Each structure stands twice: as C-alpha cells, then as structure tokens.
Amino acid sequence: GQSLEQPSEVTAVEGAIVQINCTYQTSGFYGLSWYQQHDGGAPTFLSYNALDGLEETGRFSSFLSRSDSYGYLLLQELQMKDSASYFCAVREGGYQKVTFGIGTKLQVIP
Amino acid sequence: GAVVSQHPSWVICKSGTSVKIECRSLDFQATTMFWYRQFPKQSLMLMATSNEGSKATYEQGVEKDKFLINHASLTLSTLTVTSAHPEDSSFYICSATTGTGGHEQYFGPGTRLTVT
After folding, report:
1. What's the Cα-to-Cα distance from B37 to each of A22, B59, B87, rounded to whole Å?
2. Touching check for B33 and chain A: CB below 8 Å?
C-alpha cells in the first residue's frame, strides 16, 4: 500500500513564496502529481514528476527526489486566489490509479 | 481541454432510497474512470476503478453491492448508491483518463449527496 504525508495547513503572505512538502511510502512508485482544490470544487491538475528534478509551470514548480521519497510544490508570487487545498498524489506502477495525500490547506493573507 | 461532467451536482434523498450519479467525458473517450468520496476537510478516497465494458475494481472496504458502478460506454460511468443511509452523505467525485498512458486525471465537478 501507499502512505503520504504533507502538512495540514500553511499560511503565507500575498506575493511571497511557499513550499508544500510531501513524503511518501509506496511499494511501486511511478510518479508524483499535485492537484489544487478550492472549497466546494473539484481537484484540478497542477503538475507531475516521474523523474528526479524540478518541473516548472508558470508560478508553480514541483520537485521530486525518488531516492528520498520526497517531493514539494513551490508556489511563487502568491495571489489571494491561490488559497486552496493542495494534494500530492502517488501513482503506483503502470496503472493510472493514484492515492491522494490528506491535502494542505493554504491560506494566503494580504 | 478534457472536460468531465457530473449529474446531478447535488441531491437530497431519504434513507433507504437509491441515488444514481452520472459521470460523462464530454470531449474525449475515457477508457478508465475513477470514483472518489470526500468527506468535509478530508482527502479524496478512491472507491473504485471503472473500465469500459468490464466490472469495476473496488477498493478494500468499499461494498460493491451498495455502490454499484456501471461503465457502459467510453463516455459514461454511473455510480448508484443503494439503500442510502445518512453516513453515505458525502461529496462524490469522478475522474477520467484518456487511456493514452497519460498521468493526468480529469475531474468532474462533484456531486454532493445528503441522505436524510
């Protein structure tokens, strides 16, 4: 089975940078995804890492270290609209099924 | 982009009745669909994986006779909550993949079920 750990809550100031960490344990790691979910809404895909290193998409970047079973999501130039829950999710093996972490609720304050 | 719809967006039903939730991929063929349940302020818990034309694969602890899943076509999967109880009240979300080996799941907007 899999288990993921991420902080439950993070608060950051508008315009700042925030990093949300995720550690995982899985028997057959295939890749790490990040999803954003606003209250009452559906998750939306942010990024995916299958190999070590940093993937950058605009203000969002995601990092993976397979040897450390660790990844993070980096949000730059924070905006109020970035207030949401962020989930890391592990894809196991060749299947497209993923297991989600508990989610990190990010609050951006003025 | 890939769009997934769900219907209804919310439903209130009485204990003991059944409720059907539809999940449709609008602009792509979804060989695989997933059904999740999410309680307030909690994570998404995978209930089952649904492949077109075959029986769904349920996660451990999910009663297949209570949560009936049908994936009759490449664009439609349905979840029926049978003999609903108040503890089944939750946010049910489906997602779909294109089946091309991609890693992204496209989520529907969710269905909020309240059982009274």
Report:
1. 22, 12, 12
2. no
Do the Cβ atoms of A48 and B110 come within 8 Å? no
Distance in angstroms (rounded) separating the CA atoms of residues A7 and A105:
8
Please indicate whether residue B51 or residue B17 has the higher confidence score (pLDDT). B17
CB-count burial class (<10 Å; 0-12, 13-18, 19+) for A7: middle
Interchain proximity B110–A102, CB inside 8 Å: no
Picking from B42, B105, B108, the nearest residue to A98 by CB comes out as B105
| Distances, alpha carbon A71 to alpha carbons A2, A16, B56, in Å | 15, 20, 31
pLDDT in tens, A42-91: 899 999 999 999 999 899 999 999 999 999 999 999 999 999 999 999 98
Q: Is the dihedral of CA B42, A41, B11, B76 positive or negative?
A: negative
Query: Is some CB atom of chain A closer than 8 A to the CB atom of B105?
Result: yes
